[in-house]
Specification:
Layout: E1 2-7, H1 15-24, E2 28-31, H2 43-55, E3 61-66, H3 70-76, E4 84-86, H4 90-100, E5 104-108
Parallel strand pairs: 1-2, 1-3, 3-5, 4-5
Helix pairs in contact: 2-3
């Protein structure tokens, strides 16, 4: 499965951990940027990049990481066809996919650790 991923400046500390988890699960990464941490790069831009990757069928699922996860979730859900959810536990994530057709997982780097 192709998974689009993106991290704003506050989500960047979880980048390596998330990328490794996606690769360890045998999924392909669609890097929706940025290629390096950019001060001031904020969640609306990152959310739009991941959402557009799903809308274009470049990826089947997405992962967005910002400081709290809330802003990324709200921004992604503004795009038609995106069903983003903030999940900080495995039960909510699984429930969201299986029962609610979640297609974008949002995480808060300042809320959860690696």
């Amino acid at each position: 499965m192709r998974v689009a991923v993106s991290f704003d400046h506050a989500g960047w500390p979880l980048r390596d951990t998330v990328l490794r988890a996606v690769l360890d699960a045998k999924h392909d990464i669609v890097d929706a940027g940025p290629p390096e941490c950019v001060d001031g790069d904020d969640y609306p831009d990152r959310a739009l990049e991941v959402a557009n990757a799903l809308v274009r069928n470049d990826a089947l699922r997405g992962i967005l990481v910002c400081g709290s996860g809330v802003g990324a979730c709200v921004s992604a859900n503004k795009v038609l066809g995106i069903r983003a959810c903030l999940c900080h536990d495995t039960f909510s994530a699984r429930q969201g996919v299986e029962d609610d057709d979640l297609n974008v997982l949002c995480l808060g780097a300042r809320i959860i650790g690696s």
